[in-house]
Amino acid sequence: MSENVTTDATWADPGSATHWEDFYAAGDYERVAYIGREAMPGLLARFVDRHWPPTGPRGTGGPASVASIGCGAAVDLFELAVRFPDTAFYGYDVSASVIRDDRRLAADLGFENVHFAVDALPDLATDRTFDLVYCMATLYFVDDTGAAVRAMYDRVRPGGYLVFNYPNRYTHTRFDREFTGARRELFHHVVAGENLLSYSRIEDLLGTRPRDYWRLVDARDCSFVGRDTPCVAVQR
């Protein structure tokens, strides 16, 4: 069974902007990736290395721009910003509080290539496009995952990639069986089977066959990878 990091806190409207604002406004959240935790920035860096090989006299290279949708504490962006100083990183989240915290941390660390703004799925206000759009542990809380996936893919430049994880029928079965109380309410879209995706559904939405991200970054043996934690990469 794969591992998922979730919270047991209770809010009146799980999955809403108000819910996430309350969560981050409390200020006691962890700056970790909510799936894979410490492993995730390294896996994302591996993906970038393999698709945008290091170039130039400093051996940095990388994509020109990366967006993280539902970035939360943005641990992936901050770690990659050190490794790829020539890349522009953009983090988007529904919570104004976490965006404010991320901006403060970026300023404290002196990062001039990391930017943050309030935005949310399934509709995205930003009209920017990126070489890589990354979305992890976010679609669980979106009612219309099809519209969300299309919106993210529209922000990928030709030749670039969209990387995202999503709830599927195995996620639904596990959450419905194991989650109770506040955790069940938090993931109510998945528990109800309202926002599930599959490889074939993603291909229908985007017109391109997705590839297994975990396999692309050699993470198939990690404890958090399983049938209920699918993650794909789709090239535009």
Proportion of beta-strand residues: 15-25%
Specify the overall morphology.
globular
Helix percent reads 25-40%
- The domain count comes to 1
Q: Structural class, from helix and strand content?
A: alpha/beta
CATH architecture annotation: 3-Layer(aba) Sandwich
Biggest β-sheet: count, sense, barrel?
7 strands, mixed
What can you see in these coordinates?
The protein has one domain (17-235): Rossmann fold. The chain is built from ten helices and seven strands. The chain has helices at residues 17-25, 39-51, 75-83, 96-109, 145-154, 169-178, 181-186, 188-191, 199-206, 213-216, and strands spanning 65-69, 88-93, 114-118, 130-135, 156-165, 211-212, 231-235. The chain has a seven-stranded mixed sheet with strand order 3-2-1-4-5-7-6. The protein starts with 16 loop residues before the first helix and ends with a strand.
Notable characteristics:
single chain, 236 residues, alpha/beta, Rossmann fold, 7-stranded mixed β-sheet, 10 helices, globular, disordered N terminus
In short:
This protein is α/β, with parallel strands linked by helices. 37% of the residues lie in helices and 17% in strands. The two termini are 32 Å apart.
Structural topology:
Layout (H helix, E strand, L loop, with lengths): L16 H9 L13 H13 L13 E5 L5 H9 L4 E6 L2 H14 L4 E5 L11 E6 L9 H10 L1 E10 L3 H10 L2 H6 L1 H4 L7 H8 L4 E2 H4 L14 E5 L1
Parallel strand pairs: 1-2, 1-4, 2-3, 4-5
Antiparallel strand pairs: 5-7, 6-7
Helix pairs in contact: 2-3, 5-9
